[in-house]
Design a protein that fits this description.
Blueprint (H helix, E strand, L loop, with lengths): L7 H9 L4 H11 L5 H16 L10 H55 L4 E6 L5 E4 L5 E4 L3 E6 L2 H4 L1 E11 L8 E4 L3 E5 L3 E6 L5 E8 L2 E5 L5 E4 L3 E6 L4 E6 L2 H5 L18 H19 L1
Amino acid sequence: MTGIEFDSEKIDRFFKGEYSDKDASYVDEVFCDKNKEKKLEHHLRRQWLELSGDNDASDRNLDQILYKIHYDINTRLSAQKARSFDNLMKWTLRIAGVLILPLLIILGIQTYKNTYLKKETWVEIKAPAWTRAQFVLPDGTTGWLNSNSSIKYNGKFIADRKITLKGEAFFNVSKDAKRPFVVNTNEIKVTVLGTQFNIASYENEKTVEVVLEEGKLMFNDREMRKSYTMKPNDLIVYDKTLKDFSTEIVQPQKYISWTEGKLVFRNDLWMLLPGDWKDGIILMLKLMFFHLKE
């Protein structure tokens, strides 16, 4: 402040109400500058004498008047600082809102994904006792479920093509080289790209049977200790107790004829039975199926 020249004209214009913004700023600075107090007091005393015409006023103490002027100026400066601080806070909050809002949106999306999308939705297809059920999966794979059988897959099936089987099912798998088709049971796992095969995996039976009609199939037990690449006409019989399997070549049609509602005996020893035995067994089966239809 020591570098500011004392300009009485600016002070006079201020008190006459004919001042500019620069004049008002100058007055604020002068009244707050202790080095200018003497000159300021002398100038104000002179103005007071000119305005009042009181010759005895030279002896009067102007400290009270100066104090009031200082108080008014300081109050105005404090108000300006408060307004500046308020404006700064408003801008800060606006900037914070611009920066924080996208973060809140991202956090909300992430929370939604973690909370809801991780909750898997499952689809189950069942064939009740003494019935068959035909199905079509989202990837175009078709097939049949035998009596007391079911398949289950989750909402991400298109991405992973994995299903769980209980009972017996025939699959005609839609080909997709990038996404293998996987069937899991309690005991085994089979992986294919595009093929036709049958799996019989009933919980109350001691074995699991897999028959390949067309294409290629990778067989594994659940522990992934044993594996076998099947070719068409291969049959795998997995022993649940021994946790081992055997293979043989068969006629797949005997194992998938149930999909057409046909009863075909898989064991060729049937051909060695006497004719009257065959007739009696066939008649008994016909009566049984007739009774079930009723």
